[in-house]
């Protein structure tokens, strides 16, 4: 069967893309193994994929990668809680006080474009080489997205829903809690998801840069020890964790959108 | 009298004195006064919150320092090279994935999920592959900006009006003509949007790499100021850097006819 015919068949159109993607990945790994074996790639720069695979056991048993993962997770969760409390509150306040929103919304959007992660030396001075430096960097990176999306979500509530609330003589507070907030929840969660992604990127990044904390520090440690296979394995582990994290958050977002 | 009335009306409705501007001025003044009071209070360690005068002096000293511009040039060169390599490869990959549904379903999930991973963790690999010089910073910047550009271009390609594609095909345009006369002009906004996102992450990737291991560039200057505990200089560099980054973001957006600021 030709490749075009395979792509057009029912099996091919359903599983073909996934097989091609996975096959390419396996092919690249096999190619790398071959290139190193035949000396085209230097094994002291790129380790054998099989060695990277074996190093997984070592980083799990000797480097306590799951404990480090929990540490990183703890920092991310703390940053997420701060994002939910402050991001959504500030967004709601800016939505309620229109003048304040018009005065500061462009500043918040500009802050989102600024490379705030570069402030980490400043936070090192303020909070010291501690988990709070990492948490605050994650929090600050995600804050603009949560604020902007909260304003967008609350502003997008359908007029008819608010009118229905008014016809029931609901107070402003009741309209906010029972109508505006639930209706804005999918958009707010989109902002929260973006904020979480920025927070995770910054948490792992700053851990790596200041050599403190969980998974980021592990990569830095292994690289400084010139444990090549271990470094590659730790990087693969962080990629796996990030991918799983985004998949879970995306599922929650889809479920929330359907529920509301 | 009538003229005076019109003048007074013009002053009242003048945008410079609108309530929004007044609120902005009030916020800025409050922050500056609060900062200065905190700096003078001695509540924090000395120099953690330096006085505004010290920061202003540091900004003046920084902007009149020749070596700052040399380092700024190094960083700009690295970011420019990263954006060029990552941008061109991102546009090509985006065009291919956007044009072919089968390839898109095969490879786009990998790009989609790899895109938001923290790229700085690849820096040890970049050092091993490209050395400790500017090449490893360019490589990290390239890796950072490739994903948003490729994904944005692929999404933009799928949103092209099918009528335009049919018109191109009815004129028997070849692949090159389709790309240059139909696809790229129709995708101006997604491409510019991708480049704007790419610029931001390339800048962050390059600067973070410079703070980790470098002897030149703005990232190196920031980490040097931290090592010397020269806080006013660090604040000055961060302020100037933020202004430059926001200005570059705005400029790219304006060139593409988009909003002046990044939106989510």
Short recap of the structure:
The complex is a heterodimer of chains A (about 260) and B (about 260). With about 260 residues, chain A is mostly helical. The mean pLDDT of chain A is about 85.
Can you characterise this structure?
The complex is a heterodimer of chains A (260) and B (264). Chain A has 260 residues and is mainly α. Chain A has two domains: 3-44; 58-259, MetI-like fold (Orthogonal Bundle). Chain A has eleven helices and no strands. Chain A has helices at 3-8, 10-37, 49-61, 65-96, 98-113, 120-127, 131-155, 159-167, 172-210, 215-224, 228-259. Chain B is mainly α and 264 residues long. Chain B has twelve helices and no strands. The interface between A and B is large, with 61 and 57 residues.
Task: Specify the helix fraction band of chain A.
Answer: over 70%
| CATH level 1 class label of the largest domain in chain B | Mainly Alpha
Q: Indicate the multimeric state.
A: heterodimer
Uncertain spans of chain A, ≥5 residues at pLDDT below 50? none
Instruction: Write the H/E string of chain A, N to C.
Output: HHHHHHHHHHH
Helix/strand/pairing category of chain B:
mainly alpha
Q: How confident overall, as mean pLDDT of chain B?
A: 85
Secondary-structure map with pairings?
The complex is a heterodimer of chains A (260) and B (264).
Chain A: H1 3-8, H2 10-37, H3 49-61, H4 65-96, H5 98-113, H6 120-127, H7 131-155, H8 159-167, H9 172-210, H10 215-224, H11 228-259
Helix pairs in contact in A: 3-11, 4-5, 4-7, 4-9, 5-7, 6-7, 7-9, 8-9, 9-10, 9-11, 10-11
Chain B: H1 2-13, H2 19-41, H3 52-63, H4 66-99, H5 101-114, H6 123-130, H7 134-158, H8 162-170, H9 175-186, H10 188-212, H11 218-227, H12 231-255
Helix pairs in contact in B: 3-12, 4-5, 4-7, 4-10, 5-7, 6-7, 7-10, 8-9, 10-11, 10-12, 11-12
Keywords:
heterodimer; A: 260 residues; MetI-like fold; globular; B: 264 residues; mainly alpha; 2 domains; 12 helices; 0% strand; disordered C terminus
